[in-house]
From TrEMBL:
One Pfam short name: Rotamase
Keywords assigned by UniProt, alphabetized: Coiled coil, Isomerase, Rotamase, Signal
Signal sequence range: 1-28
Residue ranges of coiled coil: 121-148
Transmembrane segments: none
Entry keyword Protein transport: no
Protein name: SurA N-terminal domain-containing protein
Organism listed in the record: Telmatobacter sp. DSM 110680
Length: 363
């Protein structure tokens, strides 16, 4: 009798174990087989096919019309890269939300008002249409940029400390870099181009649609500087088409006098008349060289300082500023790279689109 009871209990235990195992397998299957509309998950937050398709269409619009469309493989490579960026953006958004650093509606609306300032409502709507963006899409982009900036400022930028000793050590090691053989012009610029659409690096990521549109935009920006008293660097970051300078408030760095003359004598003549802090009138920007040179847009230049030839000493404020800025940027980039990797390590990410491509390729 006792043996039968033990056997019965054992059978029930085995049955329960099998049932539990089957349930776990079923749950695992559910986790591994999401909706076809889910391209990836970040800490169980879905990134949908519709969002990836929208990002891909925006990317295609930014590249302009191509005589021949991309192959399926090329298109999927672009989608994979875009999805990776969307995953990283979601990781940053979740981190910012955890730290209560998400941009507010007031922040977004204030930035939107600033972006719309150079345009009529009709022109602004046209810009959105050309980029396949709705107003809500743009607000989402603004919110993400502002949130990312707040997060990086708190987690990285606020912790970068460059000491006087760091500056002195750098100068001692790189003293020859500050021995200039001809006058140097420290410049910043705001440029509006009319060439083929490429990513601009500014928050709007748009281009003027015509030569007249470019001239009107740059003239409006100059008026905001001269009559509205707005900050040059802020306008450069928001509206200029130079991705290499926008993140640094339009700062072009130091340019040798000869190089500036060779680039464009007319521009050099206008800059040479400036005092530190002044800006030029609207000037054409040329591309190409020799007979093929042609106007590709318009710019306004700000003279930050003019440095004479010779050895610039460590006690020169511009030397210290240049070194401090360079050290902050290089150290900040290193910390950001490490910070992003740390966030990726901590996040639970599943890229179903990548898995699907590998699965299809193995057939």
């Amino acid at each position: 009798m006792q043996v039968q009871v033990l056997v019965s209990k054992r059978r029930k235990s085995v049955a329960l174990l099998i049932s539990s195992t089957l349930l776990l397998v079923a749950l695992a299957a559910c986790r591994h087989a999401p909706s076809p509309d889910v391209m990836a998950t970040v800490n169980n937050k879905d990134i949908l096919r519709s969002d990836l398709d929208k990002a891909y269409n925006t990317y295609k619009s930014a590249q302009g019309e191509a005589p021949q469309g991309p192959s399926p493989e090329q298109a999927d490579i672009v989608r994979l890269n875009l999805l990776r960026q969307m995953i990283d953006d979601e990781i940053l958004d979740q981190r910012a939300a955890k730290l209560n650093l998400a941009a507010s509606d007031e922040d977004v609306n204030a930035k939107l008002t600033d972006l719309k300032a150079p345009y009529t409502q009709e022109e602004f709507d046209k810009q959105l249409k050309q980029q396949n963006l709705t107003l809500e899409d743009l607000k989402q982009r603004i919110r993400r940029k502002l949130t990312s900036d707040k997060l990086i400022n708190k987690e990285i930028d606020s912790k970068v400390n460059i000491s006087d000793a760091d500056i002195s050590n750098y100068y001692t090691t790189h003293k020859s870099e500050f021995n200039v053989i001809e006058p140097q012009y420290h410049l910043a610029w705001i440029v509006v181009t009319t060439g083929p659409t490429q990513p601009t690096g500014n928050l709007q990521n748009n281009k003027a649609t015509s030569d007249a549109d470019a001239r009107k935009k740059i003239q409006t920006l100059r008026n905001r500087l001269t009559t509205g008293g707005e900050d040059f660097g802020n306008l450069a970051m928001n509206f200029s088409d130079d991705p290499n300078a926008n993140s640094n408030a339009g700062d072009m760095g130091f340019i040798a006098e000869t190089a500036l003359q060779q680039r464009d004598p007319g521009t050099f003549a206008a800059i040479e008349k400036l005092k530190a802090g002044q800006v030029t009138d609207v000037l054409p920007v040329y591309g190409g060289a020799g007979p093929s040179q042609r106007a590709v847009g318009y710019a306004i230049y700000k003279l930050i300082s003019r440095e004479p030839a010779g050895q610039r000493e460590l006690n020169n404020p511009s030397v210290q500023q240049t070194i401090r800025q360079g050290l902050r940027e290089s150290h900040g980039q290193l910390l950001k790279a490490a910070y992003y990797e740390m966030l990726r390590d901590d996040a639970k990410v599943r890229n179903y689109f990548a898995e699907q491509i590998l699965k299809q390729g193995a057939k």
